[in-house]
Amino acid sequence: MDTILTMLSQEEYVSGERISAELGVTRAAVWKRIRALQEAGWPIESAGKRGYRLGEHDRLEPETWRHLLQTSALGQGTILYAHTLASTNDELKKLAVSGATHGSLALCEQQTSGRGRLGRVWQSPAGCGLWQSVLARPALAPAKAPSITFCAAIAMCSVLRGYGLDARIKWPNDIVCGGKKLAGILLEAASDPDRLEYVVIGVGLNVLPGSVPPELTGQAACVDDFAAPPKRRQILVDYLQALEETLDTLQHSGWEALAGTYRELCVTLGASVLVSGSETFLGTAEGMDDEGALLVRCDEGSLRRVMAGDVSVRGVMGYV
Ligand code: BTN
């Protein structure tokens, strides 16, 4: 961790004297280190006697936001940050296998092999999105894994609503606004027969223009299309807080304690849907069962259970 960045992120001005005392190095060494940070693109200004000041930026290095966290576990363990990662889910799965604790995190500015559900590519360009994964080790049965995805969807949706967006959840785990997709969630789990060993909860959120690939502008949008977004590190901190709360509720009170909130936020329930997968059919989404499957009343009258596959909702993400 870069102590200078941590100090500058926590206070408006920090004197060279304080930095040199904290680091146990000379003032000249501090100045050299500040120069190196400036050369690495950090907007550090020197303000005479008051010392150094970190100007406005939208970077995601943990030194700049870790002190804002008020969680007890999420973000408090290992944090893997790199400018470029293949996929934050893949990196975090490797850490999980080598014993990383509940609440560990992987995040980056850009992914070169970002993955979505159903084997799709998730484009993750630098500097404009929030591409991150959280490791959770909940004491839950493997069948409960879908409810963890729903926890992440409720958390991200609530955070965005707090910024003034009319964000909603499209079953199972897309976050949409104004009929377009803002965020997607990819949950990957490892389990033994009766218990989840770990889950990796990856979320990609389009924040700024540039995060939405030009060919997807009809179906996808970014936060900035609806409201001036907070800095990405603030969104991350708010999301980790919200996710910790939903996961704790799931663990201690069960899905019933969250189901009402999910239903209220969900655009799919009660809507006309087109289900495509091994079978394709039209119907109305009537509800969800205990395992998170969607219950769809087909146009010819039967009730079908949809666990995976693609569900298009009329009026959302280009389906008319
Ligand atoms: C979807 O909508 O299909 C899910 C998209 C999930 C994308 C995120 S970005 C961070 C994490 N790393 C990945 O490779 N995928 C998820």
Description:
The chain is an alpha+beta fold and 320 residues long. It folds into three domains: 53 residues, Winged helix-like DNA-binding domain superfamily/Winged helix DNA-binding domain (Arc Repressor Mutant, subunit A, Orthogonal Bundle), CATH 1.10.10; 204 residues, 2-Layer Sandwich (BirA Bifunctional Protein, domain 2); 42 residues, SH3 type barrels, CATH 2.30.30. The chain contains seven helices and 14 strands. The strands form three sheets. It has a seven-stranded mixed beta sheet with strand order 3-4-5-9-8-7-6, with helices on both faces. α4 links the parallel β3 and β4. α5 crosses α6. The longest helix has 22 residues. The chain is elongated. The termini are far apart. The site of biotin (BTN) has 21 residues, from α4, β5, β8 and β9.
